[in-house]
Specification:
Elements (H helix, E strand, L loop, with lengths): L7 H5 L5 H9 L2 H15 L14 H21 L4 H11 L4 H16 L2 H12 L5 E4 L15 E5 L4 E5 L7 E2 L10 E10 L3 E11 L12 E5 L15 E5 L2 E4 L8 E3 L5 E3 L9 H31 L18 H36 L6 H29 L11 H8 L9 H18 L16 H6 L13 H23 L5 H7 L1 H23 L9 H19 L1 H6 L5 H18 L3 H6 L5 H4 L10 H10 L12 H17 L1
Parallel strand pairs: 1-5, 2-5
Antiparallel strand pairs: 2-3, 3-9, 4-8, 5-6, 7-8, 10-11
Helix pairs in contact: 2-3, 3-5, 4-5, 6-7, 6-8, 8-9, 8-10, 9-10, 9-16, 9-17, 10-11, 10-12, 10-16, 12-14, 12-16, 14-16, 16-17, 17-19
The chain binds ligand LAWDYWNQ and flavin-adenine dinucleotide.
The site of flavin-adenine dinucleotide has 22 residues, from strand 1 and helix 12.
């Protein structure tokens, strides 16, 4: 097969230093070097092959995933990889499996909620993978409403133990990843009941599920997989599980006791910390999901951009070549805002990581003041970025026309793997309602002179923002960060204030929350979009080296903001932040920005530095050699192993003969 770069011409048009942009995308030169090394390590190892995933029956698929996870662990030990390198290796192995829950939830939960003693006991076992853990919170009948969980942990003072029990079918644990077939231990969320029969609400407990000798469930434990999920391959590599307890006894010291304790005498002691810290692992994971959203979106956009540059339709003159579909304004209008969103989510993810680290340090110093904001930001941005990413993967599939529907485009499996992100770690609507509560609380405190800080600081300028009108007079006026910020702040303020005013008409606030939920969600979305826009603008204040790099990011930042403005025109115009004329100028400016993105589009997706292995897409191949490889791939399908298919003699031949006989009659 010829070895040419079909996209070389596209790459030669780039007006910026791609190698420097790769470093901006990775976050630092060090991060770039680690990701680059780990992605190549995985790509060159045949055990991490994944092109056959959608064709394997579940049992084979699952066994193969176990093999890969074991191999990944072997390589991590052999190469003495650091924690950072190991996590990148797992990321590029690119197959959801139990290790994500072990490292991503079980270990962080013990770190966050365990006492020093408990950490000393459990963490070394978990670090060496001598035990494998999962996070068992959700139940068959209860997911979003954590306070509604039914599993009980009743203290027995006679034996100094907790008795873990599933009182109803609805209380069966349902969904935890890694639980179905692998985990030996789980962090189990259960209602704490002490001798006085008082219910102290949900707490976390470490429970051993399976024998460390023969992997059989321990007495009183019923455990299994919940069954096949959406799509082929995809998330079916994960053993999401079900779990029931029949009066299972665990020692008292297996309740995670950093936040609250039960003494030997059965006394409940609450440390001087907010009870919401028991939800801390969810805050941590939501923050990582935002960073993951930019990766998944970038992956889909990389495939759609490269393919749009390869694909040609219409426009041939005098027998010449047809037009590259990326040159159609409609294609640009659908694709370039997604490219801009990938960068926007990357930077907001970076900032959220900083916010999370900051709040963690404050918590250690017993400063809980920024916890509500950290909760609102992680919940809101998790919701916003995963919703957009899930929708955008599907849009990228459509941008690739018919070929996008082929498994080998990589997009169907990416979609199937990604969409549950809108549900797990908090349903996206439920999370936006949390943001709305936070906003309503902030607005209600304004009259008392309380100065909002952090991401709600803009609400402190409520009087100005309720009245301001954009000064834009010509299209280029939109290319000004303060002009853009002001309209996003004004829109978010006006939507929040309108909700607060409507809420005040209800005698009972909770009734108002139920009735106005749809408006509240819109106000929360406006607030979250403002955060993303403002963090992109803040990123551009940094010193960013490399020829043309900052200019490209500036263009993408305006594409991101002006496209949002266009999509939510109703909000911006109805709240009087901008006039219809200014909206139309924003649209003119957006079109002209697309022309600036166009020559750089392929280089901008090259900057993600994804290997062909990670992309697993024929349409997104680095060399753009799409048609020969699609043709080759078709012949690899098991259906093409024989010229005449199995079933011909039973079903096709008799049918044809019957039709022939009927015709003769
Ligand atoms: C092609 C192949 C590609 C392969 C790719 C492979 C890679 C794939 C990508 C994989 C990436 C990641 C892997 C992820 C694995 C997924 C694992 C999933 C795990 C889970 O889902 S675990 C279960 C998660 N469950 C939830 O999130 C439940 C959601 N519900 C809640 O959080 C709460 O119930 C609630 C917040 C909705 C309500 O809380 P509640 O206490 O009942 O009520 P309120 O009265 O509303 O709140 C009281 C006050 O508490 C504040 N609060 C609430 N939550 C928090 C918090 N977390 N932190 C701080 N404060 C909080 C709330 O604001 C209230 O405050 P106030 O009193 O108003 O001041
Ligand atoms: C792939 C996958 C992996 C998972 N992994 C884990 C895991 O490892 N551990 C674990 O414990 N759990 C896990 N979960 C469970 C997950 O956390 C829950 O599914 C999630 O929290 C949503 O809860 P739910 O399923 O109860 O949805 P529900 O709350 O029943 O939502 C159903 C519908 O009701 C709406 N709704 C619910 N409440 C409200 C409200 N107050 N106001 C307005 N609308 C509302 C929602 O928006 C949604 O449209 C996983 C789930 C999936 C899909």
């Amino acid at each position: 097969m010829e070895d040419v770069d079909h996209l070389a011409h596209e790459r030669s048009k780039a007006q910026f230093d791609v190698e420097e942009m790769k470093i901006v995308w990775a976050g630092s030169r060090h991060a770039f070097e680690v990701t680059d090394r780990m992605s190549r390590l995985v790509a060159s190892d045949p055990i991490f092959r994944k092109d056959n995933r959608t064709l394997l029956p579940r049992k084979e698929l699952f066994k193969n995933t176990l093999r890969k996870a074991a191999h990944a662990w072997k390589r991590i030990i052999e190469l003495r990889l650091t924690e950072e390198e190991a996590s990148k290796l797992r990321f590029f192995a690119d197959e959801p499996n139990f290790t994500e829950l072990h490292w991503g939830m079980f270990v962080p939960f013990i770190k966050g909620q365990g006492t020093d003693e408990q950490q000393k006991k459990w963490l070394p076992l978990a670090y060496k993978m001598q035990i494998i853990g999962c996070y068992a919170q959700t139940e068959l009948g209860h997911g979003s409403n954590v306070q509604g969980l039914e599993t009980t942990a009743t203290f027995d003072p006679l034996t100094d133990e907790f008795v873990i029990h599933s009182p109803t079918l609805a209380s069966s644990k349902w969904w935890p990843g890694g639980l179905g077939k692998v985990s030996t231990h789980a962090v189990v969320f259960a209602r704490l009941i002490i001798t006085d029969d008082r219910d102290y609400g949900v707490h976390g407990f470490i429970v051993q599920l399976r024998s460390l000798d023969d992997h059989l469930p321990l007495p009183g434990i019923t455990v299994g997989d919940i069954g096949n999920k959406f799509g082929s391959g995809a998330y079916n590599t994960m053993d999401n599980g079900l779990l029931r307890f029949d009066n299972v006894r665990i020692p008292r010291d297996q309740m995670l006791m950093r936040i609250s304790q039960v003494t030997r005498e059965g006394k409940y002691v609450q440390s001087n910390v907010p009870r919401q810290l028991v939800y801390g692992t969810m805050v941590y994971v939501r923050q990582t999901i935002v960073a993951d959203a930019s990766c998944a979106l970038a992956r889909a956009v990389c495939i759609a951009t490269r393919y749009s540059a390869v694909r040609r339709q219409f426009g041939s003159q005098n027998g010449g070549v047809e037009t590259q579909v990326i040159d159609y304004k409609t294609q640009q209008n659908r694709l370039f805002p997604l490219l801009a969103s990938a960068y926007a989510f990357r930077f907001v993810g970076e900032w959220l990581k900083w916010l999370y680290t900051d709040v963690t340090q404050r918590l250690q110093a017993k400063d809980f003041s920024t916890l509500p904001e950290a909760h609102a930001c992680t919940a809101g941005l998790k919701s916003l970025t995963t919703t957009v990413t899930a929708d955008s993967i599907e849009e990228c599939r459509k941008l690739c026309g018919g070929h996008g529907y082929l498994s080998c485009s990589g997009l169907p499996e990416l979609f199937a793997v990604y969409i549950p992100a809108c549900t797990y770690e908090g349903d996206n609507v439920v999370l936006l309602l949390q943001v709305a509560r936070f906003l309503m609380k902030t607005v209600s405190q304004l009259p008392s002179g309380m100065k909002p800080v952090g991401t709600t600081a803009y609400l402190g300028r409520v009087e100005d923002l309720m009245q301001c009108h954009s000064t834009v007079k010509k299209a280029e006026d939109w290319l000004n960060p303060s002009v853009v910020l002001e309209v996003f702040e004004a829109r978010a303020t006006r939507l929040s204030v309108a909700c607060a005013q409507n809420l005040s008409k209800f005698a009972k606030q909770e009734e108002g929350f139920l009735e106005l939920a749809a408006d509240l969600v819109e106000a929360a979305v406006a607030h979250c979009q403002l955060i993303v826009v403002s963090k992109f603008i803040e990123k551009l204040q940094e010193d960013i080296p490399g020829k043309g790099v900052k200019e490209q990011l500036q263009t993408l930042c305006y594409v991101y903001a002006l496209n949002l403005l266009h999509k939510h025109l109703g909000d911006f115009v109805a709240t009087g932040c901008i006039t219809p004329k200014q909206a139309s100028l924003a649209n003119d400016q957006l079109r002209s920005l697309y022309s600036q993105v166009r020559p750089n589009a392929v280089a901008l997706v090259d900057s993600f530095n994804y290997t062909d292995h990670y992309l697993s897409s024929i349409l997104g191949r680095y060399d753009g050699n799409v048609y020969p490889k699609l043709y080759e791939e078709a012949w690899k399908d098991p259906l093409n192993e024989s010229v005449v298919p199995d079933g011909y003699h039973e079903y096709i031949r008799p049918l044809l003969k019957q039709q022939l006989r009927n015709a003769r009659l």
